[in-house]
Design a protein that fits this description.
By secondary structure, this protein is an all-beta fold. It has one helix at 156-161; strands at residues 8-11, 21-26, 39-43, 48-51, 62-65, 76-81, 87-97, 104-108, 111-117, 125-127, 143-150, 169-171, 176-177, 186-188, 196-199, 210-214, 221-224, 231-234, 237-238, 244-247, 253-258, 262-268, 277-279.
Length: 281
């Protein structure tokens, strides 16, 4: 049974002792009572925040009730804590354990104020507490609670309040030489009247730099790894220096990454990469 609690501790990045508080719509208390400190999810279908007391799927948009919605309260907007990066909360564990830093925690079915250790489940939070670590020796003490930080992917704050981490899209109408600031871009040939060629950036490219080319028109898209000594790696095979790769069918794509030596195809429309053509200059 849920009871009123205040689970927020602090923000480990800013040092703030007050959480980020906003308002969310809740049903009349006669329909859905809520205790302070319950983990709640925004129900996109109904438009209400409700306690997460049953785990149905992994589509969460979580917040934590910061006040109580009593059984006689009317439908209204009430305060919620929207977890941010660095926010630390304390929640009970469904079973006492030697909770370690980084332990993966999931929601607990039928209990909206308890988290469950589950290394293989859908992780909503990680343990960040160290108060049970020994000063001497290596035996971690058992705890019935955990200090945790929620994942950004499940927080209402990052899914609905702050701007999403969107990818930049470049729709080409002709040939294009990539720039270092195009890292992470999705590049299409939408608007091109014929085949287009992408050329690797000039100068120093950071290791891990990557982009995705997506064929959205029935014309060829090619990637040229200039200079002529640079090689492509496709499906683990190093290609001839100076050769380039192209795709021609709509919806084909390749994601390329610079590993410091080669341009590596790290994903494509086909696991066998049968739609990628390797050609000489």
């Amino acid at each position: 049974m849920a009871v009123n609690k205040q689970p927020y501790l602090k923000n480990s990045i800013t040092g703030e002792v007050r959480p980020y508080i906003g308002y969310g719509k809740v049903q009349a208390g006669s329909t859905q009572a809520i205790k302070r400190g319950e983990i709640c999810a925004f129900n996109e279908t109904s438009g209400y925040f409700v306690p997460v007391d049953a785990v149905a799927d992994c589509r969460y948009s979580l917040a934590i009730a910061n006040e109580e919605q009593k059984s006689d309260s009317l439908e209204r907007y009430m305060e919620f804590i929207f977890p941010r990066e660095g926010d630390i909360f304390e929640f009970a564990l469904n079973a006492s354990r030697q909770i370690a830093y980084g332990d993966a925690l999931t929601l607990t079915a039928s209990d909206s104020q308890t988290l469950t250790y589950d290394a293989d489940g859908f992780v909503v939070a990680h343990s960040v507490g160290s108060d049970n670590y020994p000063e001497i020796g290596t035996t971690i003490a058992y705890r019935s609670y955990a200090q945790v930080e929620f994942r950004k992917e499940v927080s209402y704050y990052y899914k609905n309040i702050v701007p999403m981490d969107l990818k930049k899209v470049i729709n080409l109408t002709g040939d294009y030489t990539l720039k270092v600031e195009d890292n992470g871009c999705v590049i299409t040939n939408t608007g091109a009247s014929g085949g287009v060629t992408l050329t690797a950036p000039s100068g120093t490219v950071p290791v891990g730099w990557h982009f995705k080319m997506v064929c959205t028109a029935a014309d060829a898209m090619a990637f040229d790894p200039k200079p002529d000594t640079t090689q492509l790696v496709v499906q683990g095979a190093v290609q001839t220096a100076g050769y380039y790769a192209s795709i021609t069918d709509e919806a084909d794509f390749i994601e390329w990454m610079w590993d410091g030596t080669y341009w590596v195809a790290i994903s494509s429309i086909s696991g066998a990469d049968t739609d990628i053509t390797i050609q000489s200059e």
